[in-house]
Amino acid sequence: MADLSTSYLGLALKNPVIVGASPLTATVDALRRCEDAGAGAVVMKSLFEEQIRAETTGLRQELENELHWHAEVFAYMEADLGMRYGPREYLQIVSEAKKHLSIPIIASINCTTPENWADFAAEVEGSGADALELNIAIMPTAFDRTAEEVESEFVRIVETARETVGLPISVKLPQHFSALPHLVLRLARAGANGLVLFNRLYQPTIDPETVTVTIGERRSASAEISTALRWTALLADRVNLDIATNTGVHTGADVARCILAGADAVQIVSAVLASGHQVIGEMTQYLDEWMERMNYETISDARGLLSQAQKPDEDLFGRCQYIKGIVGAD
Ligand SMILES: Cc1cc2nc3c(=O)[nH]c(=O)nc-3n(C[C@H](O)[C@H](O)[C@H](O)COP(=O)(O)O)c2cc1C
After folding, report:
1. 200, 226, 258, 277: which to mutate for ligand 1, most atoms within 8 A of CB?
2. What is the pTM of this model?
3. 3-state secondary structure of 244
4. Cα of 326 to ligand 1 centre, how many Å?
């Protein structure tokens, strides 16, 4: 048996497969199911900043203020949030889960500003969570807000969390930035310990027959792994942050790809939603057999072998054009 153990955010994981924030991690029973299926850790479904504010203003009002979307999208968001809990229940689930699970439990707050949630983050720490994931979801729609202003908001959110908790902090980022390496350096300086690359935001689409905005595919496809792999390979070991690769990890081979790119762990949601919890065991079994085949005794023997840090002269992940198409060479 190969040694599948890894370290992520300073936590010892028996294997690198983490079930990400989703309905799969919303209740104590659901969390136990992930552990029973062999997950290395779990990230609880996010508590939304709106839910924390809603303790006083009412959630529906908060959603209406935030979302000027088509009614169907609104209903969808509300239904997703509807399976959730208020802050008190969230804390209860964390402390209850800590009693019943032995794998690390990472709490998750979905935040769009540095305000409103700091006290709650402190309570999350008090409830026994092993780490805090900040799911920062800022949609930069304003024409008068610069990239620097938007990125500084990400940094302020991490600073606020760092001032509030002693827990390891990971930052779950959306996919699109104009200068990601510089931003992640700032996040590390602000006190982050790790990155989740990347969140997959709601994918709106348009129904041309009803002329309405609707929700597109909620689950990722395998091919979507490319962007997360690229940035894992470009950032791993070049900044002092652990990396959990996320979006498009569907098979054991995908987990191996992420490790070779430099990931410390992966997060999966769509694979479990599509194939059931047994996919977790299939992934770890593949990893074990692959490591034996390749003579890797530990995850760190394989980790980052194809990263930019270990292959500085090869620019496969930094390349963004198909050279062959332009100059007729590979
Ligand atoms: C139904 C559903 C609910 C989700 N809820 C959350 C959430 O509460 N917080 C969060 O950070 N991500 C949430 N996500 C995003 C997932 O954690 C994950 O980042 C995304 O699905 C990409 O990973 P995948 O390709 O393995 O699905 C959700 C995804 C799905 C499909």
Report:
1. 200
2. 0.91
3. strand
4. 37
18: enclosing H helix or E strand: strand 17-19
- The string of pLDDT tens digits covering residues 21-80 is 999 999 999 999 999 999 999 999 999 877 777 665 565 665 555 544 445 445 545 555
CA gap 197, 266 in Å, rounded: 9
Ligand 1 atom with the smallest distance to the CA of 198 is 19
Q: Give residue 67's pLDDT.
A: 47
Per the structure block, which two tokens stand in for 41?
A: 């850790």
Query: What DSSP element (H or E) covers 6?
Result: strand 6-8
Nearest Cα residue to atom 24 of ligand 1:
247
Return the SS3 of 112.
Answer: coil
Look at residue 318 in the predicted model and tell me its pLDDT.
81
Residue 3 DSSP symbol: B
Q: Say what the alpha-carbon torsion angle 88, 77, 132, 148 is, to the nearest 10 degrees.
A: -130
CA-nearest of 231, 227, 247 to 239 is: 231
Q: Which domains, ranges and CATH numbers included, belong to the chain? A: 6-327 (3.20.20.70)
DSSP 27-62: SHHHHHHHHHTT-SEEEPPPEEHHHHHHHHH-HHHH
> Residues in the chain with pLDDT < 70?
54-85, 321-330
Beta bridge partners of 131: 106
Q: pLDDT at position 159, please?
A: 98
State which amino acid sits at residue 252.
G
